[in-house]
Every structure is written in structure tokens, then in C-alpha cells.
Write a structure and sequence with these properties.
This protein is mainly alpha-helical. It has one domain. The protein is built from 3 helices and no strands. It has helices spanning 12-25, 28-36, 41-55. The longest helix has 15 residues, at 41-55. It is elongated, with a radius of gyration of 17 Å.
Length: 56
């Protein structure tokens, strides 16, 4: 969860920029898209295997 507190003298624009930057860094949209539909455990295993190979 992204929480952004307003600093003294900070404009709304800079506050929004800071929020959107944190939102993108936390990959919240990817997490939401992943949770939208059910994936079978076998498919999840294949994806994890693929990611591990890719990281090597």
C-alpha cells in the first residue's frame, strides 16, 4: 500500500508525482492484473520456472 504524506510547502503536483512514482515502483498494477483471474497451480509453477531461468 502506498502512503504519501504532504510535506510542508509541497504543492499538489509534486505530491501527485511522488505518489505515482511510488505506485509504479511497487508494481501495484501488475499485482492487480495477476489477481484478476484464477490461475491453475500448474501454470503458476511454469511461470515461476520461466522467471527463474530468465533471471539466470
Amino acid at each position: 500500500m502506498v502512503v504519501v504524506n504532504k510535506k510542508k510547502g509541497e504543492t499538489k503536483d509534486s505530491l501527485f508525482r511522488r505518489f505515482s512514482k511510488m505506485f509504479l515502483e511497487e508494481n501495484i498494477m501488475e499485482k492487480i492484473k495477476d489477481r484478476m483471474f484464477y490461475k491453475k497451480p500448474s501454470i503458476l509453477k511454469k511461470e515461476h520456472k520461466k522467471m527463474r531461468r530468465h533471471k539466470r
